[in-house]
Amino acid sequence: STETFLKPAFGPPFFYYENVALSSKGVWTTISRFLFDIQPEFVGSFCAAARKMDYIHNLPIENRSPVLPLPPNTISEAFLPTNMWWPSRSKKTVQLLAILRGKREAYRTLCSC
């Protein structure tokens, strides 16, 4: 969806405000009001505290392109040196994960066991 900005909020200087997503009632409404009524955007992040974060920003949202090089998609890709200590996956586990990803071939294989 296209966000419409008030004239003072569009363009530089850009801002990027972060806060915990599950804040007290009314906190995000107050923050939005002070930042040109821009609604928060949830952005997935990896945080040791495992808290969901929301952001309010006036960064361009049209024609976004990924940051290169592309970041890892999984924890094991991000921490390659630790892979030797991760438990191995059984054939059954791999088949179940494939099912969750929507692969029909794995489902047929699992059912024929």
UniProtKB/TrEMBL annotation:
One of its GO terms (molecular function) is DNA binding. Transmembrane segments: none annotated. It is found in: Nucleus. Keywords: DNA-binding, Methyltransferase, Nucleus, Repeat, S-adenosyl-L-methionine, Transferase. InterPro entries: C5-Methyltransferase, SAM_MeTfrase_DRM. Residues 1-113 form the SAM-dependent MTase DRM-type domain. GO terms for biological process: methylation. One of its GO terms (cellular component) is nucleus. Its main location: nucleus. It comes from the Eukaryota. This is Os05g0313900 protein. It comes from Oryza sativa subsp. japonica.
